[in-house]
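Need tokens for this chain, all 439 residues.
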Amino acid sequence: MTKKITITLFLGLVFGTTFAQNLNTAKLDSLFQILEAKDKFMGSIAVSENGKVFYTKSIGKDDIETNKRSTIATKYRIGSISKMFTSCLIFKAVEEKKLSLDQTIESYFPTIENANKITIGNLLNHRSGIHNFTNDKSYLGYNTQPKSEKEMVEIIANGKSDFEPNSKAEYSNSNYVLLSYVLEKTYKKTYKEIVASKIIKPLGLKNTYFGNKINIQNNECYSYSFNEKWKRETETDMSIPMGAGALVSNPTDLVLFIERLFANKIISQNSLDQMKTIKDNYGMGIFQVPFYDKKGYGHNGGIDGFSSVLSYFPDSKLAIALTCNGQNYDNNNIIIAVLSNYYGKKFEIPTFKTIELKTEDLDRYLGEYTSPDLPLNITITKDNLKLFAQATGQSAFPLDATEKDKFEFIRAGIKMEFNPKENQMTLYQGGKKFHYQKK
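Here are the structure tokens for all 439 residues:
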């Protein structure tokens, strides 16, 4: 149940209207081949233009233990892409005059701090101030166990507020869990029934549904993290994320969903315009996706080692869905490769080549680094032949040596270049660079 999509490239213009026939599928195939060969990615992708899917690919395994390979029919937990479905359901209820974006939530959740000030709209665009329960260390102590509405509301209420409602925006899964319960109270049905009857069945989404315990026999897959080898992740009980992250789907269903959304087959144009209105980086269940001069919309997701990206570029009627059950490479880089290919932009297939260093070679990089550009200090340590970096308040991550004085953590798109003589380090991430000085 992760945050927003960031795809930012700064140079160039895009011309033309139809590009699918010019897609270099062989080059994309080569990208996925090396991702699989180097244990960088397991998952599926679908790309469509004007409602027609013209590229699909699936690599990796649904179940490593039984060696069951993934196919384009494999279904994944999609995490926070579920929020787009929940937002659509809220707007449908508004269109049916069952709800109002301006109504406050005290009648639903009287124990929530500031409930008399928080509106349905504030929940949708993350301006409620309600604390995000998945940020708490205690979350991983109960996330695999089923929870009732009463228990979840109590957990969320105990988290209190992080800021005054509507004073700013901050991502919180709590908002969409509460919206799920609002829908259930409104329609007197379960969220599972509501999303099935109002979106899934009308659109003919055959591989999308409210999740349960993972069932490999039903073309679902387990999720994995990578540390020298793939390790299976635990499973969150879907009664916890609800409409914030409990749906299962696959790429071909997801591109159909987002195409229908922008064709006004789910909600009206007026509702879609409100959904797309960005304030302090957040829409109502949707984010902007910039690429050169193009403006896309979508959401991403992450839960239990699953990760996913869904985006749509209205001018080109281009939809891309990526679902993943094993990530050792930044999904953003894959999406950029696909978009670059589609729009005729250059992109390089990574080689993932590394160099080996002796443990004494790493000593020159060790220490704590500070930056005038970022409030986070970075401490560089080593464990035998491996260098590690750790930002203030965050977990340590390994660095692979790619060239002399150059290292990367490719899963997060991080590169570091050291200048030992000057006791300096430059951090590259998200198209930006930050200068650090060793203390």
